[in-house]
Amino acid sequence: MTRFVVELLDLRMLKVTIMGTPDRASLERDAVADLSEYCAGTDDNPGMDARTTKHLKAGGYTDAEIVRLDERLLDDRNRAWIPKLEVLLAKGGVFVVVGADHLIGARGVIATLAAKGYKTSRIAP
User: Fold this and answer.
1) What is the rounded CA–CA span in Å between residue 94 and residue 90?
2) pLDDT score of 120
3) Mean pLDDT calculated for residue range 45-49
4) 10 Å Cβ neighbour count for 121?
């Protein structure tokens, strides 16, 4: 198991996941809400929302650990993807799909690619 997986998947995270996902309907509601916010352009703050942060704290996470989770789950992964995406984009004919939180904000994939001169656009339903 990679260090990343070991860091993320402990008993505290299991507890938080269960607290935050009591049933399939809630999971669907949250996913639809997140995607709707992205498509509408109303969410520009990636990472843990207040509800998730509350659950993480109830699960025993410290503020510093929550910040580190955000860094590991979003920022670190975004930085790692950019060189790989540039290779794919240079070849052309590629469609890339990532979670909405990876697209928004100053350190998101879209802003990072735009800063490198790529033309980006938001696709809304």
Assistant:
1) 9
2) 84
3) 86
4) 6
Q: Residue 22 is encoded by which pair of tokens? A: 């009591």
Biggest CA-to-CA distance, the chain: 46
Long-range contacts of 43-50 (CB under 8 A, 24+ apart): 43/100, 43/104, 44/104, 44/105, 45/104, 45/105, 46/70, 46/74, 46/101, 46/102, 46/104, 46/105, 46/107, 46/108, 47/73, 47/74, 47/101, 47/105
The pTM for the full model equals 0.78
pLDDT at 1 over 60: no
